[in-house]
Task: inverse folding
């Protein structure tokens, strides 16, 4: 029985598993569904690295500067430096693993992406996540065969096993048999974003329920910047979810407009002549929100891709075109796409240091479930990178800190009696979502946040199952974080505090549950060059 | 639009299967079988007899045809529930919804597809050395990287049964990426597994191509891989 447990088999989990396996150290890879079904396969537009294959003299230093600026100076700069300096090597590794990026000879072509001044985003048409996941899954399979990586691929992690401020392991539910078992050892959470907190309103998967983050929070694990939700400017509603129209569509020349007095108004290009439609997502989403409120305007924003050349559709965006035709019965070559902002990414999450340690000894976190790298706004193409680097970095720190683990006892499977096995009832999930969205929109203010908190408190006053109670706590952390951050920065825009306030708030929001209340504090960012 | 979902249900692996007809109403012309199942599981929709409906066990994840989780037999064909529009069946007024038949049923529409992943291990689908794609190989490697491991192809394959030697298109497609990218000299174990677990059993009817929800160009990959994995070796033997 192995004693390192990775929870989640998306890019972060696979990257960690590969790192352990290549070091000859066994691990368990535990996920609610197989890797093929993880949210990482949905990533479309690409992955960033200053590979400089386009003759633009790009450098990791510029990637660093764009990332820090895009994140509105809220990210840990040491971590971002590590991210941007490691990026070219990570890309070279993916290439060696046979990822068929769009190539120019034997180097990847790079495309423009939001918030970045140079072409830095490698891509495989518009299915980059799926194609990278396939190569990573193949790479890990080799070690599954060798017995180093043991897969538990229909297994949900219900909770952490904690003892006096330390994490001792996880409780795991076999979704097929209904039995559960306790796995003792070091734990690395790679369980993805909090999509399930906002059912039907995000671009992500139903599998990323956020319930494990909620259980961890209830057990005393700190969250960082929980108020930072990324709204992606270009999403469309399809049955049961928001469907992303990748930023690559704008990277390849797509333009946003709204009708003003019957005329097309390319508001982004007018207001931001340098980056135009490719401003960071927080800016674009907010501008869309504001132009829609404009009484002279038509209320609907469109993404116009009709001028893209045939070659671009065929070689670079073929999957996007198929998706739009299938789901919207609309040919983006002929008709502009009506788009709206949708929740897309969670910059906030489990609070870690740049070695991916949490505040509980023995517990690590990486990928979208943690709050590292992206500050107040993530740049497109940086999150797959962050997941790959985070998984590897976390695995390296576990190897360095805990040494080569001893083999642990075999888990004992028993019929599950843990109350956490019961899911949040769908009707209650929808209620919590609606309450939270009342406060956590693109534009926020004290009145709406306090209103949402009041409703949440009322909702919490009636009895709920344990998962629902945990989700309420998590929602409270998001609302309280947003209320306490009395400034505007990145994805967090306060109509009542529209300015950025570096002196008071260029700090990480830290949320912690002490067993009775949710506490919010602000922590100084780590010193540059420090740990 | 009102449509009855005629679902083949079973409480657990060993329980007796039964059918339950559940009417579903929606104004959304884009609504899918996945949306209907989600609505039914939110509670409050009784079956045709007016009995309350226990939540229907099924698997989903992406809800946009990209993860393969929701494969099931809809209207007699293997499909993704998130890709099966209810309008397709509106005229008939009802649609049958059943679990995939080639895998053990866990409950209702959830099946255990572990064999898919075991087959990839048996087929040694991994790189044994660095194998970068280039402009020439990237297209085929891209297509071969798109398999969802949904299992729809195995459902219609006359030669696949779980537990048998033959692994079907779901293993051939991912293997095709490696056959495309790896230099010939590094392909020995993969080729052997390929010829034993795929080539020897495939009747080339291409039923698998017609149902693939990812629209993978099965035929092209199959022809290429067969050529690389089998014929080159035979030719070489003949030359010796
Ligand atoms: C539509 C879309 C497009 C995107 N496009 C891009 C892009 O172009 N570029 C980019 O960089 N990023 C993109 N992103 C973001 C990026 O894909 C994700 O942030 C990243 O892949 C997250 O990887 P991860 O490993 O952290 O988590 P995920 O891939 O989400 O994996 C989470 C894993 O955790 C498991 N899990 C969850 N809860 C539990 C539990 N309780 N027990 C057991 N297992 C559990 C799941 O089964 C899964 O295996 C996109 C995201 C979306 C939704
Ligand atoms: S061609 Fe026919 S026999 Fe071969 S895998 Fe496809 S369906 Fe099966
Ligand atoms: S080849 Fe197509 S049908 Fe078969 S498992 Fe892959 S995606 Fe599904
Ligand atoms: S839910 Fe992913 S393919 Fe249907």
Result:
């Amino acid at each position: 029985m192995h004693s390192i447990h990775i929870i989640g088999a998306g890019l972060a989990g696979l990257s960690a598993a590969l790192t352990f396996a290549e070091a000859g150290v066994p691990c368990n890879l535990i996920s609610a569904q197989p890797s093929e079904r993880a949210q990482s396969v949905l990533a479309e537009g690409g992955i960033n690295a200053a590979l400089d294959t386009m003759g633009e003299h790009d450098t990791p230093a510029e990637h660093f500067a764009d990332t820090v600026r895009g994140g509105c100076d809220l990210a840990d700069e040491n971590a971002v430096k590590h991210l941007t300096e490691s990026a070219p090597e990570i890309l070279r590794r993916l290439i060696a693993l046979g990822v068929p990026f769009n190539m120019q000879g034997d180097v990847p072509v790079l495309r423009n992406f939001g918030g970045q001044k140079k072409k830095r985003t490698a891509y495989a048409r518009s299915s980059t996540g799926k194609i990278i996941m396939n190569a990573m899954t193949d790479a890990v399979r080799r070690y599954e065969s060798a017995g180093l990586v043991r897969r538990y691929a229909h297994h949900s992690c219900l909770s952490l096993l904690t003892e006096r401020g330390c994490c001792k392991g996880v409780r795991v539910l076999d979704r097929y048999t209904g039995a559960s078992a306790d796995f003792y050892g070091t734990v690395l959470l790679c369980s993805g974003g909090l999509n399930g907190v906002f059912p039907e309103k995000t671009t992500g998967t139903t599998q990323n329920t956020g319930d494990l983050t909620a259980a961890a929070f209830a057990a005393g694990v700190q969250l960082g910047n929980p108020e930072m939700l990324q709204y992606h400017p270009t999403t469309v509603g399809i049955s049961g979810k928001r469907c992303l129209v990748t930023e690559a569509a704008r990277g390849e020349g797509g333009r946003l407009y709204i009708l003003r007095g019957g005329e097309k108004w390319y508001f982004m290009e007018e207001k931001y002549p340098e980056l135009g439609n490719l401003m960071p997502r927080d800016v674009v989403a907010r501008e869309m929100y504001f132009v829609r409120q404009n009484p002279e305007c038509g209320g609907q924003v469109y993404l116009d891709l009709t001028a893209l050349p045939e070659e671009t559709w065929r070689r670079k965006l073929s999957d996007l075109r198929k998706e739009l035709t299938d789901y919207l019965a609309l040919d983006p070559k002929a008709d502009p796409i009506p788009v709206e902002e949708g929740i897309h990414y969670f910059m906030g999450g489990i609070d870690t240091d740049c070695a991916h340690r949490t505040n509980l000894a023995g517990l690590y976190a990486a990928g979208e479930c943690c709050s590292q790298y992206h500050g107040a706004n993530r740049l497109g193409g940086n999150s797959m990178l962050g997941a790959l680097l985070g998984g590897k970095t976390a695995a390296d720190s576990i190897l360095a800190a805990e040494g080569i683990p001893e083999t642990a006892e075999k888990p004992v499977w028993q019929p599950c009696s843990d109350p956490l096995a019961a899911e949040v009832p769908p009707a209650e999930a929808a209620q919590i979502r609606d309450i939270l969205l009342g406060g956590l929109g693109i534009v926020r203010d004290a009145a709406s946040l306090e209103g949402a908190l009041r409703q949440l408190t009322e909702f919490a006053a009636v009895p709920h199952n344990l998962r629902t109670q945990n989700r309420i706590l998590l929602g409270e952390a998001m609302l309280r974080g947003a209320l306490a951050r009395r400034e505007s920065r990145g994805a967090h825009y306060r109509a009542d505090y529209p300015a950025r306030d570096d002196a008071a708030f260029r700090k990480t929001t830290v949320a912690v549950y002490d067993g009775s209340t949710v506490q919010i504090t602000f922590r100084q960012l780590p010193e540059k060059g420090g740990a | 639009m009102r449509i009855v979902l005629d679902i083949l249900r079973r409480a657990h692996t060993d329980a007796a299967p039964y059918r339950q007809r559940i009417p579903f109403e929606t104004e959304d012309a884009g609504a899918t079988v996945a949306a209907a199942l989600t609505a039914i599981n939110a509670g409050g929709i009784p079956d045709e007899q007016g009995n309350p409906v226990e939540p229907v066990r099924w698997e989903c994840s992406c809800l946009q045809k990209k993860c393969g989780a929701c494969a099931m037999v809809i209207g007699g064909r293997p499909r993704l529930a998130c890709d099966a529009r209810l309008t397709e069946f509106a005229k008939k007024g009802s649609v049958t919804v059943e679990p995939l038949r080639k895998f053990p049923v866990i409950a209702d529409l959830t099946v255990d597809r572990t064999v898919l992943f075991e087959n990839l291990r048996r087929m040694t689908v991994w790189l044994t050395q660095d194998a970068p794609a280039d402009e020439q190989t990237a297209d085929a490697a891209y297509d071969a990287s798109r398999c969802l491991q949904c299992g729809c192809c195995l459902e219609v394959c006359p030669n696949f049964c779980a537990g048998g030697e033959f692994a079907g298109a779901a293993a051939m497609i991912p293997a095709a990426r490696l056959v495309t990218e790896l230099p010939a000299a590094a392909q020995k174990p993969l080729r052997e597994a390929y010829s034993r677990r795929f080539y020897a059993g495939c009747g080339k009817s291409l039923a698998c191509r017609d149902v693939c929800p990812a629209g993978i160009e099965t035929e092209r990959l199959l022809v290429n891989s067969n050529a690389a994995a089998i014929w080159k070796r035979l030719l070489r033997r003949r030359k010796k």
